[in-house]
Amino acid sequence: MTSLIYQYWKGSRPEYSYASEEAFRNYADSIKADYHLGNGQINLRCLHKRYFAALLPVLKPDFDKYDSILYVDMDVMPAPDLKQNIFDLAEGHIMMSEEVCQPELRTNMQGKINSTNDIKWANIVEQTWAKRPLEDHLKRPRVFNSGVVLYTREGIAAIRNKFPSILRYQIAMKLRRLPKFYSFDQNYLNAFINLDRIDFRPLAEKWNSQLLQYFDGAGRSHILDRRETDTCFTHVQPGAIKKSLTQQDMKDITLGTYDLDANL
Predict the structure, then answer these.
(1) Phi/psi at 151 (nearest 5 deg)?
(2) d(CA 205, CA 234)
(3) Would you say residue 243 lies in a domain?
(4) What is the mean pLDDT of the chain?
(5) Is 24:7 a contact under the CB 8 Å cutoff?
(6) What is the pTM of this model?
(7) Which of 78, 68, 70, 73 is closest to 9 using CA atoms?
(8) Could you tell me if 55 and 188 are in contact, meaning their C-beta atoms sit under 8 angstroms apart?
């Protein structure tokens, strides 16, 4: 079985991204997987190309030789000395971790990413493609994060054959005046993982444990830390301070020795 860890960045890189690259190169070596850092053009006819890195394993036939491919954002860090091989979990077509708190958070969040727009987005998907995205028990769209996406070879073929074109999807969102966030790779994937004959499997949250800043309806800042003792990957999204994080900061965050509250 051949496997690949794929990351991508185009343009000037923030310092934190080098910590992620180093950590995932080492993790790939430890589990006998290949590693590739993409840094070129995204050859795709669509809007917002830079926000479709999570689809690159699907879009680039260069990597069709692999049985499974893991796409990972460059603000994600593996746990120190992680031994478990994520590729041992690969099954179905595509796997992503759920942001289990998002439907609730978005009912009270400021900004354009909110439950009202989530429901509008889900309605557009159902009206256009006759299949509603996955929902929770309260009929709120579930959110699966595209910062960590595990594809199988069969899944890449299925997505190429079954998913609508990215540009058509984006035009549908733009015509209904949804914020551009809803036209990026995460919502594109979330729109269609529930299609017939697409075998989507949730990935345990420990493989994409969120550490993020959000603002409630009153404009107050909060840190959501979903890490547990068994967390394998930490997704570091602490708002505006992220761009100034150093390589050592990222390592300290992973170790739990970085004081986020003091630096916000």
Answers:
(1) -110, 145
(2) 10
(3) no
(4) 94
(5) yes
(6) 0.95
(7) 73
(8) yes
Strand 94-98 versus strand 200-203 pairing type: parallel
DSSP string, 247-258: HHHHHHHHHT--
More confident site: 105 or 165: 165
pLDDT at residue 154 is higher than 90: yes
What pLDDT does residue 224 have? 83
Is residue 20 in some structural domain? yes
Query: What is the CATH number for 197?
Result: 3.90.550
Please give the structure tokens belonging to residue 105.
Answer: 């958070």
The token duo for 156 is 């890449």
The pLDDT of residue 23 is above 80: yes
| 107 DSSP assignment | T
CB atoms within 10 A of CB 32: 11
Compute the distance between CA of residue 16 and CA of residue 235 in angstroms, rounded to an integer. 12
Task: Classify residue 55: in a domain, yes or no.
Answer: yes
For residue 248, the SS3 value is helix
The pair of three-digit structure tokens given for residue 169, joined into one six-digit string: 């999807």
What is the per-residue pLDDT for 47?
Answer: 86
